Amino acid sequence: KSGEKLKREELKKGDILFFDTHHRNHINHSGVYLGDGKFIHSSSGKVYGVTISELNKGFYLDKFRWGIRKL
Predict the structure, then answer these.
(1) What is the pLDDT of residues 26-37, one digit of tens each?
(2) In what order do the strands lie in the sheet with 29-35?
(3) What is the DSSP letter of 4?
(4) Residue 53 bridge partners (DSSP)
(5) Staple 31 to which of 1, 41, 47, 51, CB 3.0 to 4.6 Å?
(6) How far apart are CA 43 and CA 19, in angstroms?
(7) With pLDDT > 90 as the criterion, what percentage of the chain qualifies?
């Protein structure tokens, strides 16, 4: 609960991202924004390991909830 919530268009490299991948109104996944619409995270899906994914298309497009910036 620390840090100001950021919208998709406010994200910068290094921001922490939060997702609700099951649309159950709770956060169950996170990652780190890399810039250019990409983020790194640990996937339990097909990749099953650390991977880089697209934030603005595909599976995570409608799962993103907010980001935060920690300095």
Answers:
(1) 999 999 999 999
(2) 49-54, 38-43, 29-35, 16-19, 64-68
(3) -
(4) 39
(5) 41
(6) 12
(7) 82
Greatest Cα-to-Cα distance within the chain, rounded to the nearest angstrom: 33
Report the alpha-carbon distance of residue 22 to residue 25 in Å, rounded.
Answer: 8
Compute the distance between CA of residue 7 and CA of residue 26 in angstroms, rounded to an integer: 17
- Whether the model clears a pTM of 0.85, i.e. scores above it, the answer is yes
pLDDT (mean) for 19-46: 94
Contact of 59 with 41, CB cutoff 8 Å: no
What pLDDT is recorded for position 46? 77
Residue 51 has which token pair?
A: 């991977």
State the SS3 of 7-67: CHHHCCCCCEEEECCCCCCCCCEEEEEEECCEEEEEECCCCCEEEEEECCCHHHCCCEEEE
